[in-house]
Every structure is written in structure tokens, then in C-alpha cells.
């Protein structure tokens, strides 16, 4: 099993990198964030998950050990395969996804990750207790953005990412949710 890979990026594909390490070119599926930062010729280090099925072997790569471990946790949920788990990880930082799961809000998780209602509910039900350790002391966005504030902005038509970014820019000294939402609305226009 390949758990870590360090080498030079040979080429970028739509959803993968080819990494040359030890005389071999490894095709590694990566998140959009890793793909955006990657450049051909650049050295890269990735934690990897080696996925094996009857007729296929795949490598999935992650920039951090935390992402790699959270990916493994997502795979424990029946119906979540590696491609779905990678898509979930691409939607938001691990700490935010874990906080959404730990808060037990499948609707907000589904809106953030693009998962369907049933899959989001299953993730919350099966991982609620296990996900909390990945969220740590962070809130939904890592700096005191509450899920209900994001949900309020999303109900006004903003995407999860727009709502999250607007709320992250609000002064931390403001603790009233209504005022935080008003300030965020001023930021998004």
C-alpha cells in the first residue's frame, strides 16, 4: 500500500496529477484545491490512499494528514466511495465539514458539499461523534461563524462559500447574530 508520495509533477489532468517518484509515474486523483496550486515540474508531497477494486486500482492524494484521515473516515460510510469523498473534501476545509457534521445539520452539510439529502443525513448520522475531533475547537468556518448565520444568508440566495467568506470578514467583536448577518450582507453587496 502506498501511504505517502513525494516527487515531481509531470502533468496535470482534469482531476489528477501524474507524479514522478522513484522512476515511476503515479496517477494521483487530487482535490480541486491541490490541482489549482500544482504546476508541472514542481516538487510535491502527498499523503495517499490506495484504493483497490476488482478491476481497478487508484491513488488519491492529499496535501495534509488531516485531509487524508478525514477522507478515510468518509469512506467508512456505506454509499460513499473515493470519488464522492474527494468531492466532499473539495467543497470546504476539513475543519468546516467536520463542524457541520458534528453540529448534526444534514441540510447545511448538503448545501455546502453538494451531496443529496439522504447521503448528507447518512453522513451526519454515522459520523457525528467521530467528526468532532476533526473540527477541534473551530466553529463552522474556523472563526466563530455559526451554521445558522450561514443558513440565513443561504436562504437569501447566497452560496455556502459566499456566505462563509462574508461572515469570515465580519468583525469578531460583533457577537449578535442579527448584526453579524447585516454586516455580512453589506460585504456581499
Please tag this protein with its features.
alpha+beta; cytoplasm; 3 domains; 5 strands; 189 residues; DNA polymerase, domain 1; OB fold (Dihydrolipoamide Acetyltransferase, E2P)
Explain the overall architecture.
The protein has 189 residues and is an alpha+beta fold. The protein has three domains: 59 residues, OB fold (Dihydrolipoamide Acetyltransferase, E2P) (Beta Barrel); 71 residues, DNA polymerase, domain 1, CATH 1.10.150.20; 42 residues. It has nine helices and five strands, in the order βββαββαααααααα. It has a five-stranded mixed beta barrel. Strand 1 and strand 2 form a beta hairpin. It is globular, with a radius of gyration of 18 Å. About 4% of the residues have low confidence.
The gist of it:
The chain has 189 residues and is of the alpha+beta class. Helices cover 50% and strands 21% of the residues. It has 9 helices and 5 strands, in the order E-E-E-H-E-E-H-H-H-H-H-H-H-H.
Compile the SSE list and pairings.
Blueprint: E1 4-12, E2 16-21, E3 24-30, H1 32-37, E4 43-53, E5 56-62, H2 65-75, H3 82-91, H4 94-103, H5 106-113, H6 117-135, H7 147-155, H8 160-168, H9 177-188
Parallel strand pairs: 3-5
Antiparallel strand pairs: 1-2, 1-4, 2-3, 4-5
As for the number of domains, it is 3
Give the full name of the CATH homologous superfamily of the largest domain.
5' to 3' exonuclease, C-terminal subdomain
Q: Tell me the distance between the termini.
A: 50 Å
Q: What summary fits the major beta sheet? A: 5 strands, mixed, barrel
Question: What is the CATH class of the largest domain?
Answer: Mainly Alpha
Shape: globular
Which CATH architecture of the largest domain is right?
Orthogonal Bundle
**What is the string of SSEs from the N terminus onward?**
EEEHEEHHHHHHHH
Q: What is the strand arrangement across the widest sheet?
A: 1-2-3-5-4
DSSP strand (E) fraction? 15-25%
Radius of gyration in whole Å, from Cα? 18 Å
Percentage of residues in helical conformation: 40-55%
Task: Give the helix tally.
Answer: 9
Number of strands: 5
CATH topology of the largest domain: DNA polymerase, domain 1
User: Structural class of the helices, strands and pairings?
Assistant: alpha+beta
Low-confidence stretches: 138-144
Task: Determine the mean pLDDT.
Answer: 86
Domain DNA helicase Holliday junction RuvA type: 1-61
Main location: cytoplasm
Keywords: Cytoplasm, DNA damage, DNA recombination, DNA repair, DNA-binding
Subcellular location: Cytoplasm
